[in-house]
Amino acid sequence: MIESAVQATHLSKSFGAKQVIDDLSFQVAPGDVIGVLGKNGAGKTTLLELMLGFTPPSGGGVQIFGHPSVALPGDVKVRVGFVPQQDELLEQLSVADQLRVIASFYPQWDSGLIQRLCNEWGVDPRARIRNMSVGERQKLSILLAFGHKPDLLVLDEPVASLDPIARRQFLEQLVDASAGGDRAIIFSSHIVSDIERLANRIWILKGGRLDWQGDLDSLKESIVRLHVRGDAGAIASVAVPGALSLRREGNFATVMVRDWTPERQRELEARASLSIDVEALGLEEIFLELHR
Amino acid sequence: MKTVLRLVYTYFMGTAVTRGLTLSGVALCLLALLAVTYLPQTAHVLAFAFSSQLAFFLGSASMPLMFGRMAKGRGVGLLPHGRLKLLASAFLTVVIVALPAGLLAPVVYAAGNSFKLSDALKYPGAVDFLLGMAILIYTSLTLLAGWLYLAMWFLGSQRNASGLWRSLVIVVLLIFVPVREIQELSGKIEWNLVQLALTWMVFGAAFMAWPRIKAAMAQRGGWNRSTRKVVATRDTWGREVALILGTHNPWLLVGSLALPLLMATRVGLQTPEIWLFFLTIFSVVTGAFAGQAAARSRALWLRRGWSRAELFAEVERSFWRHNGIVSGLLLAFMVAIGSFTHLPGELLAGGLPLLVLGTALSTYLGFMITRGLRWIEIALASGVMLTLMAVSLLLSQELVKLGLVFAIEAVLLALVFVLRTVARRRWSRIDWIECRPPRTLVARQA
User: Fold this and answer.
1) Which of A79, A220, B124, B248 could form a disulfide with B242 if both were Cys (CB 3.0 to 4.6 A apart)?
2) Does the interface ipTM go beyond 0.85?
3) Reported pTM
4) Which chain B positions have a beta carbon within 8 Å of A131's beta carbon?
């Protein structure tokens, strides 16, 4: 049986009266690359930090490699890498010193890998952290999470301050990291194209709940735009269950719909003598439609 | 003007805590006016006047930090006359904050000397005297408040040994110069006004020119030179946990305390009560660094196999290793100077435990801050500080009641254990979403 990297059951978190995470259940297996999408304040950071035990849940629970996240033993922690949204670097150190300090916590630290990445990403080991730009600091934070080759890598908006070249290099490294299929990666980002390029599963958080969780292809098959043609009467009375939006114009209607299946298409065409063309959407459009 | 007033309003009323303190200050000031006018004059009645000024000052205590953050930010440079308005708001705050003392001074004086203010109006000389006294106290306090804000800014914005050093030097100088002048009414209005004008002109000019000075220094590589110090290589090696917690090098703190301590000793040894007062403040400062422990420990959570309870134990050990050295040196210093200058045995007998208690109490109060600074911690810290001060004053009286001192110290010792228990319980369910390292540290180089 394959060991789950993360397993959450009815996970909830509230701050006072505000429910930030509401009854989430999910499982993350090795090989999963999960992109977490959500508007600002949707609960992405809280969810990621809940998973890693930084904050205790208000209800339910989450396990990392079979252990409750709020009480992770040392041998589990060395299998986890985390890039926080807000870096936790020591301002007074140089890059090399910071790398050495963090490396000392992990017996399996791969200095060769980090040296190579420093060269490729243009991170100067002699630079003082306090003199580095936000983007440079972010690169360093990512390196610190990669060095011990974690089995579970969690990244909270890791590319927010990176330039396009650094972003591309980071994504390539993430592809390399996930290539073996034995590592789970969870990352949140507002750059939907990155998630679309890299993730094989998508979580869309809305109001503290998982509005969608599943693989990217299923999501794209499920949420589609329908171009409906028929006589004016049929168009005027067209009703599509699960419609997110509906726009009528004479003999045409455009419908955004979720949970779409070929069966539903056949059924609708037969019922109202309509002609329906299905247009697949990009992830960004899907995200926008779900939040309209 | 609207912006300046809005800023001043925000300094005094921006948060629930400052709003509460400011309004309490105003209410206490009104109460004090009534009390000193209509009640028999005792030291207790004057406490109203003192409390009103203190509450009013504390109500604006967020000004230095807010001012500093805005001054450092780039946004203020883009606003029309942003820096000038910011400077004006700071000046106006200082001018306003000293008002209660200035207003109350003549009333308190009249009441203290058993005559009515209305009677004084009949004698032009008396009016001049009272007015002069009010202006003297007001200008002295305006000066004092300005320096205190600067000390608070150093302490709040530069949470390191350098900030601590600068703020302690200012506090030591303040206690021995302006405070004494206020106490003895030995200052001169003209001299105060000259000091005020000079201070604000120099500060204002430097503040307005700062972006250009900074740019020029950066161009000449001035910043690089200042950051070329090796902090953490060989001397801290093998102590990574301490490095992350900021407890790796107690000698930084010892170095920061050295100059203010020597200044306090040089100036204040003739008055042992003030000297002990200072040592007590220094002992509390030593422990106050623990206030950052919860936020800093976040970086250790995923990197060590410790549970939350074990993490607390490690953090506690690390801080005691650090504070033990500083506290030990402070005690040794007190014994050495005390023996050399033949200070009374009672002062040393009661003073030494007091310093240890100061460090222990502030350390555990610091550990208790796991969800930001709230009312309970502020109230506890104020209570503890006042008690420590009271004991140091008790010890400097001619007939020292050692029994009473030891009894209070025993209560304080019990409080140490209570605070430790509370801190440990809080750490057992610490939520790092509620205590993150300050974001300004991260954004500083943006």
Assistant:
1) B248
2) no
3) 0.73
4) 223-224, 227, 445
